[in-house]
Each structure stands twice: as structure tokens, then as C-alpha cells.
Amino acid sequence: MTVKQPPIPLQRIVNRLRVAALRPAVLGLIALFVAGCVGLMPSPFRPSPGPKKAPQPQDLAEAFDIVCRNYTLGPDDELTINFQTPWNLPKGSFRLDTLDKLEIKFAFDPSLNEKVIVRPDGMVTVQAIGDIQASSLTPEELAWRIQQRMVEADVFAIDETQYDVRRAKLVTVHVVDFFEKINQLLNSMRGAQGDRNALVVGPDGTLDFPLLRGRVLAVGRTISEVEAIANRLYKQNVMRHIVVSLGLHVAQSRKVYVLGQVGSPGAYPIRQPVTALHAIAMAGGHLSRTADLTSVMLISKNIQGKPIGRRLDLKKIFDVGDVSSAILVKPYDVLFVPKTYIEDVNVFMDEYFSVVTRLHTFLKALGN
Predict the structure, then answer these.
(1) Strands (DSSP E) found in the chain
(2) Model pTM?
(3) Do 82 and 185 reside in the same domain of the chain?
């Protein structure tokens, strides 16, 4: 036996049609409400605006100090190295060194004159008396030792020794070529690296100087500090008269990190003070359709090394020429360019409808 359904009243049908007609409008209002909520939602990328004060001259000086004058070395930094010799030394302070070329002359017997080279062991070989220590002596001290050895060996004739050998200078030492070790060091470096003498800070933060056994720790030190250490080690070990000078050729370790809605997010080395806008330009510029230049986030460190963040409105620079956000970035700063509010809403709505669709499919499957 079938039960006959009562007819649906006409008014109910009209009400259902009205609800169906209003549904798109209601959905649109809900979407606008959600968009407003997203815009008002607190976000780490949209903090309260920072100070409105424009950059002062001391700001540039401080940034220049950090990037340039007080630059501390890091891995991959490339240094130029030059070895020089002092042009002027106090009288009597010059000391013979290995590879120096000497000419020994005898006042009363020129046949004994000869040219010698200081061997790596610091000795020279003189005819008639053999080896004698030369390194670390002044030319006058070496000449006096040769003269004493000649007298002891009876090399001089009696008529030549009638002079008071304690006062007469029978032997003189002339330095023909000096600082030869440095010249050969420079030639070997040019042969290995071309016309430019360069050192690169290794991944372990050290520098490998020629002829020094140990490596010099460079990370965290200024160029002048590393230079002073290298000069001290050279004078203590292998080269007494050498002067080392270093220069920063390529600053690879000092980078600014640009993330978010830019052409090429990543780390970019900065060789000079740059503004946040310059850093974004280095990263390929902002994405015009999705980037929100009014809320760029700059994450830096204060004097105590604690991270701090500030919001930069870079759009004002283009719109009205307001340079209050032309902040200079420092090494290791992070710039984040967020998406616009509209783009955030689009992402939210995409996720929302994706969840609703999956939920509807799930419920439909349960109903079946």
C-alpha cells in the first residue's frame, strides 16, 4: 500500500527559489568577510610600522664601518698578498740571509777574491779556510771572522801581516744581491697563480701562507690583525726582513639573504653598504603581481647579537619619494618580501575550497 505525499505548498517553492537565488550573494559576503579577517589577522610578516626617521649620515658611516673598515674575514673571502722589503734600515742593522750573493775581497791578495752565495744552511765556503757561518751576521762581522781564520791558517804572507791585524781591514764583504728569498718567493707565486698573488680563506676559516708550516686562523679577525700575525711568524721563522701586506680582493663571506616574492631568492654578497631596495634588486627585483612592498620584513641583529625585526614600506619610495624606509642592510641580514593581502586571500580561499571539496566527497561517500 503506497502513501500518497501531500502536495508542496506554492509558498514553500517560492521560498526555496529565493534561497537559491541569494546563495551566490551570501557566499560573496562570506568571502569578503573572510578576506577582511585575513587582512586583520596578526602575522609575523606584518608587524607594527617601524620608526619614521629617515637615515642619518651616521647610519651610513656605521654601515660602512661594519662592511669595510671593520670587516672581519670569513670563509671564501679572497685576499691579495704582497711581499715587500724595507727600503731603509738603521745603520748596522742589516743581517745576511740565505741566498744572498756576496763578493769577498782581500786587500793584499786579489787572487783570493771570490763571489759566493749564502747556502740554505747559512754557511759560505771560502777558499783556503772552508765553511764559515754567514747567516744572521752583518757584512762587517763576516769579514772580521774570515780575516781571523785567514790569520790563524797562516794564509797571509809575513810582509802583509806586519800590520796590526786587530785594526787593519784585510778582508771586506760586499753584498751584491740581497733579499733574494723574497724575490724567489714572489716568482714562484706568480708562476702558480698568474700575475695576481691571492689567498683564499678556507672552509675551516684559516689561511695558508707560503713557507709557513702552520695555518693562520682568519675567521673573525680583521685584515690588519691577520697581517700582523703573518709578519710576526715570518720574522720568527724564515724571513727576517720581509713585510707582508694584505688586501681584500673579493668579499664572499658577507652576504645578505633575500627571500619571499622576488625573482631569485637566495644569498648575495655585499661589497659595500646597500639599502634594502638595492638588495631586492640584486635578487632579481620584486614580483609585481604578488609582492607586497608595503610590508617588507628586515631581520637583523642588534649590538648584543639578538635578532630584531622591523617593517619597511618600500612602496613609499616609489610613490612619494619617502626615504624613511631606505634602511641600510648589514651582512647576514634577512629580507623577506611577503605576498599581498589579495594573494593571501587567494591562497586561503584555494585551501578553503579544497578542504570543503574533500569534505563533501567524504560525506557523499558515507551517504552512499
Answers:
(1) 78-84, 101-106, 114-117, 123-126, 130-133, 171-177, 198-200, 206-207, 216-217, 243-250, 255-260, 266-269, 274-275, 296-301, 307-312, 328-329, 334-337
(2) 0.55
(3) yes
